[in-house]
Amino acid sequence: MTWVELPDDTGFGIDNLPLGVFLGGGRVGFRHGVRIGDLVLDLFAMTDDLIHHRSTLDHFLVAGPGLWQDRREQVTEWLTDERNRVRVEPHLLPLDDVRMCRPIGVADYVDFYSSKAHAENVGRLFRLDGDPLPPNWRHLPIGYHGRAGTVEVSGTPVVRPCGQLGPPSDGLPPFGPTRRLDFEAEVGFVVGAPSEPGERVAVTDFAEHVFGVCLVDDWSARDLQAWEYVPLGPFLGKSFQTSMSPWIVPLAALEAARLPAPPRDTELLPYLRDDDARWGLDLTLEVRLNGEVVSRPLFRDMYWTPAQQLAHLTVNGAALSPGELFASGTVSGATPDRWGSLLELTADGTRPLTLADGTTRTFLEDGDVVTVTASAPGPGGSRIGFGDVTGTVLPAR
Ligand SMILES: O=C(O)/C=C/C(=O)CC(=O)CC(=O)O
Ligand SMILES: [Ca+2]
Ligand SMILES: [Mg+2]
């Protein structure tokens, strides 16, 4: 039990304790903070440790699980033992008084493609003939390298990108603002502890390297993407911006949310076998368009787990850096109420969605606001919140 007064049904109780980076609240410079209820505990003020006075969490995360756990225990004690109240209370700042920043340096960014339903839906829409799943899909978690430098924190507006919109009809390809701007609701994984070049990270060593989990929106311009992606994959159709939520929920808060791997019909190479790893996660996402829920994707529907993604990412010996991000890929399930992109929800713009205000959408319009939230079960029936990743679409420049 914490002595901090919490709002009813908060997802940010004493069992969560996510980390973020903030400015403001009457404090000088960047600070690392822990969220409890609708308050932020200033970690630099509490510890006097300069590691918590940096613009990203990377310098803290690099230390690895030993320090992560020590800090978590320390914060738990500050917030539960009433005797600490006089010392701690002045450093609890209202969330409304601070500005949350991008929490990590994003040394690298990879996006996977791990929902079978999503891969099949997109395959059917983008590649009209043949099996919607490519032959490699069941043997490895497919991914692409995204643009790390354009990963922005939630709240950063999304400027509609311009580009080549498709093949030439006569002469030159059409050029202009995308007409098919989309969201992709995803879950992100933050690497804390690096690995050595040449080292492979086993599925069972996932928690030795990954600190925690956030939400990601992989904004996508479908017309740019469909024209450019052969044969090297997504490029400018996705690199204009990717958004991430500001609070990183530690894996340590997700013990009650862990699930066995989903059933799979194809034998895997040993480095991808995860029967004992239990890194399926019971996260329920909600996607809102202008405040209205348009989808409730379940992360338990994912075919490849984040532990397999990390094992695959490093099987060639590629080293991990502190503060890198990899995302799950769009979280979609078997039924339309669980599809995580408009591409799927509107069948590539052929079946418009009708919103509560009577307007319809095929793809996003200027002024639209997309918000992804999530929650997971915590210990003893509590709930672990993730906050949200949100973005407002601005007209093209
Ligand atoms: O199948 C394709 O050509 C591309 C599909 C995507 O847009 C997928 C992507 O970004 C990965 C994902 O979110 O699952
Ligand atoms: Ca994606
Ligand atoms: Mg993107």
Automatic annotation (TrEMBL):
Active site annotation, chain numbering: H118 (proton acceptor)
GO MF: fumarylacetoacetase activity; metal ion binding
Pathway connected to this protein: Amino-acid degradation; L-phenylalanine degradation; acetoacetate and fumarate from L-phenylalanine: step 6/6
Sites where the protein binds Mg(2+): D218, K238, T242
Residue span(s) of domain Fumarylacetoacetase N-terminal: 16-101
Domain Fumarylacetoacetase-like C-terminal stretches: 110-393
Gene3D superfamilies per the UniProt record, alphabetical: Fumarylacetoacetase, N-terminal domain, Fumarylacetoacetase-like, C-terminal domain
Enzyme Commission code(s) on record: 3.7.1.2
Domain of life, source organism: Bacteria
Pfam families: FAA_hydrolase, FAA_hydrolase_N
Chain residues that bind substrate: Y113, R127, Q225, Y229, T330
Protein name as it appears in the record: fumarylacetoacetase
Organism: Blastococcus tunisiensis
